Amino acid sequence: MTSSDDESRDWKESLADWVWARWGWLALGVLVLFALNNFIGLVVGATGLIAFAHRLTGRLLKARQVVDQVRKVVADSGDPPPS
């Protein structure tokens, strides 16, 4: 390596240190926001999955209730209709 390469590297390192010292809090803030966004996305996704399962279960139970009502009507159809 030459001394100009060392000087160039030293200049870049000092610039990087200066930027981190001045704007490091911004980088950490962006990192925290990214982490919170991922966490909130996970919570919202889980909530949506639970809501979907609840809706599906409700429809299945409603269909079962209708089937039971139809069976009852069919079973009672042997009786003569009231006059």
* Number of continuous helical runs: 1
Q: Kindly, what is the distance between the CA atoms of the first and last residues, rounded to a whole number of angstroms? A: 110 Å
Rg is 34 Å
Mean pLDDT over the full residue set: 87
Percent of residues in helices: over 70%
Percentage of residues in DSSP E strands:
under 5%
Low-confidence runs of at least 5 consecutive residues: none
The shape, in one word, is rod-shaped
Number of strands: 0
Counting helices, strands and paired strands, the structural category is: mainly alpha
Textual characterization of the structure:
With about 80 residues, the chain is mostly helical. Helix content is about 90%, strand content about 0%. It has one helix spanning about 5-75.
Structure keywords:
83 residues, 89% helix, 0% strand
A few lines on this structure:
With 83 residues, this protein is an all-alpha fold.
Set out the fold topology:
Layout: H1 3-76
